[in-house]
Structure formats: C-alpha cells, structure tokens
Design a protein that fits this description.
By secondary structure, the protein is of the alpha+beta class. The chain is built from 26 helices and 23 strands. The protein folds into 5 domains: 139 residues, no CATH class; 162 residues, GAF domain (Beta-Lactamase); 41 residues, no CATH class; 101 residues, no CATH class; 220 residues, no CATH class. The strands form 4 sheets. Strands 15, 16, 17, 18, 19, 20, 21, 22 and 23 form a 9-stranded mixed β-sheet that branches. The chain has a 6-stranded antiparallel β-sheet with strand order 11-10-9-14-13-12. A 5-stranded antiparallel β-sheet has the order 3-2-8-5-4, sandwiched between helices. Helix 1 crosses helix 2, helix 17 runs antiparallel to helix 18 and helix 21 packs across helix 26. The longest helix has 27 residues. The two termini are 68 Å apart. About 1% of the residues have low confidence. It comes from Flavobacterium petrolei. Pfam families: GAF. This is GAF domain-containing protein. InterPro entries: GAF.
C-alpha cells in the first residue's frame, strides 16, 4: 500500500525500533539460552542498519527489509494469531501502515488495488490538533481527552462497506522536543483549549516539525460493522411520537461516559425561529433542565444576558466552548453571562447548536464545575451524539406543532396564514401552561381597512327555478305519456284519476314556482305514481316507455335532473374557475403587504380582505399599501370577468355574471367569534359596513327600477369624493391598458335601510382582445376538471 502522510505535522516522524532493540539487548544478556541466543542472532542481523535505532527517514529501507523487520516484530505479531488479529505497524493518525497480519493483508487485498485506506472523517486539521494534544498531555501534564473513535471504511470483495474501529498502541513511541519548539504558558494552553478551530494558532504554538516523533505504533482493528449498522438503524427507526425523556441521571450518564467527566451536567433549550427566542422544553417530566434559562421560561436571542457570546452560534451555527468561565467573565461584554454561569457553579461549558437541514432547532448545554474539563477540543465528541439529539428535538418540535395545530383547529378554525401567528401565539400559551382552566383570549385586529368584492351569477334564482320547472314538466309529461299508453284494464278508474292529477300538477307549473311545489310533486310521484307503475303489467311498448322513464331518474333524488344538472354544472364550473383565479392572484397580492383574506362560493364568488398594521405588526404600514390592494382588486375582477366571457359559450347552460366592489375608507376592527369560528366586524359603528355588504348587490339606481349591477360591467360603490377620485384614476389607467371600455357611468344608489348617501361608478370590461384570442373549452374537459 502506498504511504500517505499528512502534508504538515508538528512532528518530524522517524520510524525507529530503538525501544524494541533495547529490549532485545536486555534479553541477550540473560541466562535463558534459547531466548538469549535468539536475541543475539537478531541483533547481529540488524547491525548493518543503524537507522533501525537512529530513525528511518527513507521508507524504501522498510520495504527492502520486510522479512528482517517481521522477525524483529515477531513477539508483537505472533504467527499463531496472524490469521485472527487485524494488526499492523503504523504512526498514529497517519495513513501509513506496514507489517500486516495475514488477516489484515486479506482484507486489504479484497478491497482492491484502487482502494486508498484513510481514516473516516479525519482531515489535516484534526490530525494537527490531535498531534498537538499528545504533546500537551506528555510534556505539560494536561489531561485532554481526545480519544474519539476512529474508523476505517473498507469494502470487502462483494463491494459491501465494512467499518473497522482503530485502536492504537503507542508504547514504542517517543516524543522529543527540538530547538524550534516554543515554551507554552498556562495562558497559551487555555487559549488553545478555547480555539480548536483556529489552526493558525495551533501552528503558531506548535510549528511544523518542531517536535520529533520517534518509534512506531501498532494499529489494532476490530470489525464494528454490526454495531455501526445497528446505530444507524436506530437513528432511522426512532419513533415519531414525542417520548418523555428519561430521568436526568440516566440521560447524563451517557454523556459522562463519553466525555469521562464525573460531574458533567446536561441541559437543552429549544429555538423558536418565529420570535427569535430560546424556550425551555415543555415536558411533563421536569428532570431535563436548562442552565441558560435557569430561572426564565424564555429569553430573546438578543437579550443582554447572552451578550455577544451567542452571535457565533446563531449566525454561524458553531458551538461555543468556554474552558475557564471565571476567566471568561472578566472579558468585556461577557460579565453578565459569565456571572450567570458562575452562580450555578459552572466553571467550564459547551453550548452546541442542534441543526437540521440548515435550521437551528435548539441548543444542547454541557456544563462542569471544574475549569478546563470542557473545551473546544472535546466538544468535537458531540458529533457522535448530535444526530440523536437532532431527531429527538425535531420530534419534540413536530409533536408540539401538531398539538398547537390541534388546539387551533379545536378552539378556532382553519386560519388564513396572514393572521395565523396570533392564533398560534395564544395556542402556544395554552400548550405551555398545560392547565385545563386556561381562558382563551378573543382574537381582535384593530384599525384594519376592509375591501369587499363579489362576482355574482346574474338572475341565478330565476334560472334555478326555471330549470326545476323544466325538469318537473318533462317528468310529468313522461308519466302522462306512460298512462296514455296503458292497455291493461286493471285499476282503470284509478289510472284515470292519477292521470288527471298529473295533468293538474303540470298546469300548476305554468304559474311561478312556490317554495314547496317541488317537494309536493316529488312526494306525490314517489308515493302515488311509482307504486302503480311497478305493480301494473302492460304491453311491450308500455314496458319500453317505463324502462326509459326509470333510467332517466336521478339516483339520489329519484326525480328528473337534466336541465337543473346543466345549470348546477355551469354554476360549479364558473365558481371553480373564478375562485381559482382569485386564490392565485391573492397569493401574489400578499407580497404587496400581508393581509387577511377569505373567500366564499355562493351563487358566485365573494371575498373579504382586511389590511392594517395589527395584522402584520412586524412590518411598517402605509396607506399606499391599501391603494395598491384596491387597484389589485379592480384588476383581478376584470380578469375574472374576462375569464367568464371566454368560458360562458362552452357552458351547458349560459349564465351571465355581474361584478361589484364596495369601497369603505374608515378603519374598522374585526373579532374572531369563538362560537361561530369565523371573523366578524366588531362594534355597532362597524356593523354599518356589514349592513351595506349584505344589501348592496340587490340595490337599484336611485329613482329607477334598474339594478346597480349589470352583466359584463363592474360596479364600484363608495361614499366620499376622495374615493371617487381614486377609483376614476384607476379606471383611466385600465382604460389606457384597454382593459376597460371608455364609457363610465356615475349615479346615486337608492337609500337602503339605515344607509343613505351611497354613490356608484359602473364601467364595462373590454372583451375585444379576449374575443380575438377566444379559448376553446370543451364541455367534457370542463366537467373532468370540475370532478
């Protein structure tokens, strides 16, 4: 295998067997003949190679003397174990090995000639720092625990990737300082502990090749594929439900084992991105605590308590390590947070972000009462634990969101995104208090400007009545025809009576349809006529008429549903098409300024908009946004009118529409009605707006019997001169764009009950361009889209 050393190291590496040779020299002077003779013979063999003692720099010498080195290492690599042990000579952390056991050779050979054996997730930065910590522990009496698990990922002959855990034996290594090695103070060591990521600093304190690493190490591998795979499987199969975290002692014992710190304590806080706050997890089991939020339930991320310390965590998603809190507390800007930690007997700590898909979910807190126990070096061990914490916190957040959603759905209703934040805030308060006696506050938005518009099916009630009458007439005529063709003599008198009654009902339909006429005819046919038809025998001609009749009945109503079905389908198609335009355009309009929007399908499509600073308190409001939204509303109604104009000739039942906008310039308040699960205007003065909304579309032009709305025209109802000026400017703009026709009508609206002084502008939507680009709708395609 080709040697692959890291380019830079604090060590100048010399492969040497000097410690092993010293051991052989001691054996050579013993009284045990066979051991002494063996040692003497081996020492004589290596006499021509003084580099075996002084240090080998030319690696070719190793490859040229493989057999001799194998004899030299025989006590460490027993032949009896060569097919069982996975072992080789190495330099710790370097991708350099030789003198393999037979099992190791087999594994490497199966991996193939293209395989390059390298330690998993171990780069030059880690190598350099880990090498420096060897020096700190050996020469400066530090007890830095850097021993995180290292693995080789080696494929077998089937291409399956196996994971091998690496253990190092460094008994035959020696670290020697050179003249280039600077002397380090305790302040230097403390600085290094707090700056694991600053590689330049480490190279300054430990210059390249300023120390000599002399000797050799032994790498011992064991197959950890099963354990590693199980761990991955556990991560993937973690239950989605939120589970109570176990007792604090059990939870912390895992961390203590990993970090080898007896007094280690663990805490967790959750990050609320919407409000930029840190929040304590609301768990029934209060055993899991927080040291950042020791007395508070939540704290803004910009709070003075945290100072500038958390900027690195929030902005760069990097862990904060403080190895000496007392020293940290004396630095400018850290006094408040440092004192907060010292008051809890915290003298070293790590705060690590819990991140999923680039989003901060929370922070895990590791604290110790001893200085320097926790530092930026052993903080890297959290990489082993964070995947599990990420899943745990993500499940907690998901479960909390689901519960909040359930609370909103139960206590309120489906909520528009623009006002959802306020409902969510109230639901979150309920969730965090976890008390059954919590009283929900009413949701009120004050000082909002309303916009109302509708596009209505013209004469929908009359059309519906006419189609009902047509279906009833066709059904009665079909029944009369059946009775006329009855050839049987059975119940002849009764048949004549029923025929007379059917003819009488048919005659009634020449008059305006009453509210209960349809129901009366339906009950009569079901109870009196259908039993006769099913129980009376007739000839073949009569049977065909009866069969055709029953096949023409609607399965649900048991009545003829031909003309009305065409009308209902036409209504549904119009409503769906126009509503889809409104919904799409409204989503775009949210970019103007966030506002509340609701839409209703009746005999047409109505919509309410409310805009104001109380709906989006985080954004500055200006009436410019209101005027923008009014122009958007007018343009959108024009587009809906054009869509209907292109659509109506393809409909099974031709229907016209009228459009209306109600202008109301005074701000109002809207309140969510808990009993009705919907928003409504708040207060008696604001109720005037609702009265006008409900009555205006049926109003007439003052002094006439003509409705203020007319097909293919948009009617704008207003009260004040400034509103008239505003909308006339919008109309001029849309006339310039050939959306509206030149003629503009202006008139007064008749007095409504309790409301007077309304005026209106009416203008026709231009269909010239749309006629030139007429869309070809097929009725079947429209039905398919509807279904």
């Amino acid at each position: 295998m080709t040697p692959n050393f890291f380019k830079e190291s604090p060590f100048k590496t010399l492969i040497s067997f000097h410690k092993l040779i010293e051991s052989l020299e001691e054996i050579a002077i013993t009284n045990v003949d066979y051991r002494a003779n063996y040692a003497k013979a081996l020492l004589k063999e290596i006499e021509p190679f003084p580099e075996f003692i002084t240090g080998i720099e030319n690696l070719d010498l190793i490859h040229e003397n493989e057999t001799l080195i194998q004899y030299l290492l025989a006590d460490l690599f027993p032949t009896a174990l060569t097919n069982n042990e996975i072992k080789a000579v190495t330099i710790p952390f370097q991708n350099f090995t030789f003198n393999y056991t037979e099992r190791f050779k087999k594994i490497v050979n199966e991996a193939g000639v293209l395989f390059d054996m390298a330690i998993r997730d171990f780069d030059e930065h880690q190598f350099y720092v880990m090498s420096c910590t060897l020096i700190l522990n050996e020469f400066y009496g530090q007890k830095i625990d850097f021993n995180k698990p290292l693995f080789y990922d080696i494929p077998n002959k089937k291409g399956i990737m196996n994971q091998y855990r690496i253990l190092y034996n460094a008994d035959f290594l020696e670290i020697i300082a050179t003249d280039k090695a600077p002397k380090l103070s305790q302040d230097d060591i403390d600085m290094l502990m707090d700056n694991y990521d600053d590689l330049a600093l480490w190279k300054e304190k430990f210059p390249v090749e300023s120390w000599i690493l002399k000797g050799f190490g032994i790498a011992i591998l064991f197959d950890a594929t099963t354990e590693s795979s199980i761990s991955k499987l556990k991560s993937n199969l973690l239950k989605p439900e939120r589970e109570q975290i176990a007792l604090q002692e059990n939870f912390e014992s895992i961390f203590r084992s990993i970090f080898k710190i007896a007094d280690l304590r663990v805490g967790v806080i959750v990050y609320n991105a919407e409000e930029d706050k840190f929040v304590k997890p609301t768990l029934n089991d209060t055993s899991l605590t927080s040291f950042i939020l020791s007395t508070e339930e939540e704290v803004p991320c910009k709070n003075a308590l945290l100072g500038c310390s958390f900027e690195n965590l929030l902005e760069n998603n990097k862990a904060i390590s403080i190895s000496n809190v007392e020293k940290f507390a004396h630095e400018p800007g850290n006094q408040i947070f440092g004192s907060h930690l010292l008051n809890q007997n915290i003298h070293s700590c790590i705060f690590a972000p819990i991140i999923k898909n680039g989003m901060l979910l929370g922070v895990v807190e590791l604290v110790s009462a001893s200085p320097r126990e926790l530092n930026s070096i052993n903080a890297s061990k959290l990489d082993l634990i964070l995947p599990y914490l990420i899943d745990t916190v993500e499940r907690y957040n998901r479960d909390m969101q689901n519960q909040i959603e359930a609370i909103i759905q139960r206590e309120y209703t489906a909520i528009h995104p623009s006002v959802y934040w306020k409902f969510r805030k109230e639901a979150q308060k309920y969730f965090q208090t976890q008390t059954r006696d919590y009283i929900f506050k009413e949701i009120v938005f004050k000082e909002v400007y309303p916009l109302y518009g509708q596009i209505d099916i013209k004469g929908s009630s009359n059309h519906r009545n006419e189609t009902v009458k047509e279906d009833l007439k066709n059904q009665l005529n079909a029944l009369i025809q059946i009775f006329d063709n009855q050839k049987t003599k059975t119940n002849l008198v009764l048949l004549e009576q029923r025929k007379f009654e059917l003819q009488s009902l048919l005659k009634q339909l020449d008059s305006p349809l009453k509210a209960d006429t349809e129901q009366q005819i339906q009950l009569y046919i079901e109870n009196e006529i259908h039993p006769i038809l099913r129980n009376t025998k007739t000839d073949s001609a009569g049977e065909i008429l009866e069969k055709n009749y029953f096949e023409s009945l609607d399965e649900k109503s048991g009545m003829f549903y031909h003309s009305r079905k065409k009308f209902d389908n036409a209504m549904s198609i119009i409503n769906k098409k126009l509503a889809s335009i409104l919904d799409k355009k409204q989503a775009e309009a949210q970019n103007i300024y966030p506002h509340y929007y609701e839409r209703f399908k009746t005999d047409g499509v109505e919509h309410n908009l409310y805009i104001g600073s109380s709906i989006a308190p985080s954004k500055a409001f200006d009436t410019m946004y209101l005027h923008n939204l009014r122009l958007w509303q007018l343009q959108t109604l024009c587009e809906m009118e054009l869509e209907h104009h292109q659509l109506k000739y393809s409909l099974p039942y031709e229907l016209d529409v009228t459009s209306l906008i109600l202008v109301f310039s005074s701000p109002i308040s809207i309140r969510f009605r808990m009993d009705e699960k919907r928003f409504d205007v708040d207060g008696t003065y604001n109720a005037r707006y609702e009265v006008v909304k409900k009555r205006i579309d049926k109003a007439n032009i003052k002094g006439t019997k003509e409705r203020i709305t007319e097909k293919e025209k948009i009617t704008i109802v207003y009260s004040h001169n400034n509103e008239e000026t505003e909308y006339l400017n919008y109309i001029k703009f849309l006339q310039f764009k050939n959306v509206l026709e030149p003629n503009v009508e202006q008139f007064e609206v008749e007095e409504l009950q309790g409301v007077s002084g309304l005026r209106a502008i009416r203008v026709k939507v231009s269909n010239k361009n749309s006629d030139e680009t007429q869309k070809n709708f097929s009725y079947q395609d429209l039905l398919d889209e509807l279904n």
